From TrEMBL:
This is Putative cytochrome P450 YjiB. Belongs to the cytochrome P450 family. SUPFAM superfamilies: Cytochrome P450. Keywords: Heme, Iron, Metal-binding, Monooxygenase, Oxidoreductase. It comes from Dictyobacter arantiisoli. Transmembrane segments: none annotated. The keyword RNA-binding does not apply. Pfam families: p450. One of its GO terms (molecular function) is heme binding. The gene is yjiB_7. InterPro entries: Cyt_P450, Cyt_P450_B, Cyt_P450_CS, Cyt_P450_sf. The keyword Signal does not apply.
Length: 366
């Protein structure tokens, strides 16, 4: 994909794919993200993209409702609430690593990158971690399924979360579900649809993407073993390395927008109602913004990547994702001497058009 992005940036940076315009250059992607009035996140029924799993969540809403609901999540996602999770993340990284084979073999995705973020988001929401296999299944359906599977999965998730909330009515807890249930916007509680969409978004957005970040980080270590060694000697470089990992292998490739009026982007006329896909992953390899963009360089400054988006929909979970990755990598660098790819097993990329990550990443470690 990266070779294709590069070619398109140089030849047809706003590319007509059937059903959507693909926007590939950094400046154009930024323009789309920062002009929510022209490039709306809200699909209407006629022009809507039925494969967007999160259509009734804040991700797919425009102001003013977007602004009102986003304010609510900001109240629950305070820096204090995130910092409180720090010791839980540490404990769990150790716990997951203690489970892996003493012969020095593991599958990074199954053994660490997948279960860690699910556990943390389940804890934040307040739903039982025992339901994780169910979450995993739902999440795969949402990101890789066909439109009817996506619709039925959303329905199942809605039923599940509304049931969980009903339990909270009887037995309130100190968790996000209870907080959302009692939250009011302009004197009114959220609708059932909004409540369910929130939970689906937090679970899906908070888990698949962070798993991909951690998996992709290991992949970078395998590709660049010298970086692994450098960070072992200088763990203070981990946060900057994570930013470069986010840029180099961006977990979210693109999310759709819809033109609200006729507009010219770059030199390309776009008509009202057409779908426009800003490619974060391509913007993050744009040479005009990042010299030697295809080189992985953990000392890159500045590194104004768009892996978490920009504008009014910029990722709300970025501090949590960064914290999980930082703790996981720090412990791995501390506990493992060296990593190598287990070539006896296939390395598989996810087939999703939205997220970029590995299905499995078998490794040996010393
Ligand atoms: C929005 C990426 C982790 C919650 C976004 C957007 C991107 C993104 C690109 C913007 C979408 C758009 O412009 O249409 C990522 C990546 C992550 C990550 C790469 C991990 C490495 C998380 C986590 C959570 C989260 C851990 C929550 C626990 C959200 C929410 C939004 C969002 C609620 C919607 C914000 C809005 O529409 O106002 N994320 N995300 N994300 N993210 Fe994340």
């Amino acid at each position: 994909a990266y070779t294709w992005y590069r070619r398109q940036r140089n030849t047809q940076p706003i590319y007509r794919n059937p059903g959507a315009w693909f926007v590939l250059r950094y400046e154009d992607v930024k323009t789309v993200l920062q002009n929510h009035a022209t490039f709306s996140s809200q699909p209407d029924e006629k022009r809507g993209n039925p494969t967007n799993p999160l259509r009734s969540s804040i991700l797919s809403l425009d102001p003013p409702r977007h602004h009102q609901l986003r304010g609510l999540v900001q109240q629950v996602f305070t820096p204090r609430a995130i910092a409180r999770l720090e010791s839980r993340i540490e404990e769990n990284v150790h716990h997951f690593l203690n489970q892996v084979s003493p012969q020095g073999k593991m599958d990074v995705i199954t053994d660490l990158a997948f279960p860690l973020p699910v556990l943390i988001i389940a804890e934040l929401l307040g739903v039982p971690f025992e339901d994780r296999e169910q979450f995993k299944h739902w999440s795969r359906n949402l990101f890789e399924g066909n439109p009817s599977l996506i619709a039925s999965t959303q329905q199942e998730m809605k039923t599940y979360f509304l049931q969980q909330m009903k339990n909270r009515l009887q037995e309130p807890k100190d968790d996000v579900l209870t907080a959302l249930l009692h939250a009011e916007v302009e004197g009114e509680h959220l609708s059932e649809n909004e409540l369910a969409a929130f939970c689906i978004l937090l679970l899906a957005a908070g888990h698949e993407t962070t798993s991909d970040l951690i998996g992709n980080a290991f992949y970078c270590f395998l590709e660049y073993p010298e970086v692994f060694e450098e960070l072992q000697a200088h763990p203070e470089g981990i946060p900057a390395a994570i930013e470069e990992m986010l840029r180099y292998y961006s977990p979210v490739k693109t999310l759709p927008r819809y033109a609200t009026q006729d507009v010219v982007l770059g030199e390309q006329p776009i008509r009202a109602g057409e779908m426009v896909c800003p490619f974060f992953a391509s913007a993050n390899r744009d040479e005009t913004q990042f010299p030697d963009a295809d080189t992985f360089n953990i000392h890159r400054t500045p590194n104004r990547h768009l892996a978490f988006g920009a504008g009014i929909h910029a990722c709300l979970g970025a501090p949590l994702a960064r914290l999980e990755a930082k703790i996981a990598l720090k412990i791995v660098l501390d506990r493992f001497g060296r990593l190598s790819l287990d070539r006896s097993m296939p390395l598989q990329l996810k087939s999703s058009s939205v997220v970029f990550g590995l299905k499995q990443l078998p490794i040996f470690f010393l």
